[in-house]
Amino acid sequence: MERTFHMLIYRTFHAQRSCLRPHLDQIGLGAGQPKLLAYLNTHGPCSQRELADYFEIDPAAVSRMIDSLIKGGFITRTPDGNNRRCGVVSLSEKGKEANQDWQISCRAMEEKMLAGFTVEEQARFSDYLSRAYKNLKSKPEGEAL
Predict the structure, then answer these.
(1) Comparing C-alpha atoms, which of 109, 129, 123 is closest to residue 5?
(2) Contact 40/91 with Cβ under 8 angstroms?
(3) Which of 57, 74, 82, 91 has the most beta carbons within 10 angstroms of its beta carbon?
(4) Is the torsion defined by CA of 102, 39, 80, 59 positive or negative?
């Protein structure tokens, strides 16, 4: 079978998820939730809209993740009127601890994934992935993708 970049990225993504999934369960988080905790830890309290925009995901999906994180005690929401989506979400102490545990798991996974890569190769790999992302996000007019 021919190994295209598409397939290599797909396989690497799934291997990464498989490596990290047990840690999600240990911490008590669901898929997609750690990135919200990491964002809140770095940027501080924010609106659901800001989270949806940053991660390029549907606001309704963010709302469901936030509801679940609130239920688990990982974040809190300060309402702004009657609209839940207009409120501000913040990390709780439990959320800060969960984020810290998740970051430790991610660093361990990255060490495993990049074993045998030189520091220079790691820097180039990071640059390649960043550039590939930017290429996919820039959409010339009239282009289907």
Answers:
(1) 129
(2) yes
(3) 74
(4) negative
The token duo for 109 is 């996974």
**Please, what sign has the CA dihedral across residues 35, 41, 47, 50?**
negative
User: Are the CB atoms for 34 and 24 separated by under 8 Å?
Assistant: yes
- Residue 57 amino acid letter: I
Between 141 and 116, name the one with better pLDDT. Answer: 116
The closest alpha carbon to 73, from 110, 98, 104, 108, belongs to 98
118 phi-psi bin (left φ>0, alpha ψ -120 to 50, beta other): beta
| Residue that the structure tokens 């998820």 belong to | 17
Write out pLDDT tens, residues 113-128.
999 999 999 999 999 9
pTM of the complete model:
0.82
Q: What region does 57 belong to: left with phi over 0, alpha with psi -120 to 50, or beta?
A: beta
